[in-house]
Amino acid sequence: MTKQNIAGEELVQLAKLALEEVKAQDIQVIDVRDKHSLTDYMIIATGTSNRQINAMAEKVREIVKQKGVMPLGEEGKGDSDWVLLDLNDVVVHMMTAAARQFYDLERLWLGAEQSRAADGKHHSPENTHEHFVKLNKDLD
Fold first, then answer.
1. How far apart are CA 104 and CA 75, in angstroms?
2. Burial level of 74, CB count in 10 A (0-12/13-18/19+)?
3. What percentage of the chain reaches a pLDDT higher than 70?
4. 104: which DSSP letter?
5. Stated pTM of the model
6. What are the record keywords, sorted (predicted)?
7. Are residues 19 and 60 in contact, defined by beta-carbon separation less than 8 angstroms?
8. Domain boundaries of the chain, sorted by first residue
């Protein structure tokens, strides 16, 4: 197998296709070219279990290898809640929903206004922060 030079955008599409094939949830692509010098894109996807996360990683690895791309590294194999696959121009993060919420990589790389922590539930009217309740009473 000869190593091919695949552009980051094509690698993103291959990885997304692989993740979709194994039913990964909430696949997000973040362009970090202007924020980070080690990679161009980050893909974050949720798996429903550690077993599915391992299947996701295996499928991405399989699809990119068919195009001659050899992953540079992998972290979190086995029963981890977070598996990272480094494809050089693209880093794929595959996580359980709990790990994804806890680490909130979207907020880190996109900014606080893009945060998906707690699925936005912490901003719902039913879960108003105590300091906002006090502020609103003071304004009345």
1. 18
2. middle
3. 74
4. -
5. 0.73
6. Cytoplasm, Repressor, Translation regulation
7. yes
8. 8-136
pLDDT digits (tens, 9 = 90+) for 81-103: 999 999 989 999 999 999 999 98
Tokens standing for 111? Answer: 């900014």
DSSP state of 22: T
Cα 109 to Cα 32: distance, rounded to the nearest angstrom: 7
User: CATH for 8-136?
Assistant: 3.30.460.10
Sheet with 90-96, edge to edge strand ranges: 25-31, 41-47, 90-96, 82-86, 73-75
Measured between alpha carbons, how far is 64 from 87 in angstroms, rounded to an integer? 9
**Residue 49 identity:** S
- Which tokens go with 100? 């994804």
56: closest CA among 39, 32, 76?
A: 76
Please choose, from the candidates 106, 56, 109, the residue with its C-alpha nearest in 3D space to the C-alpha of residue 83.
56
- 8 Å CB contact between 46 and 60: no
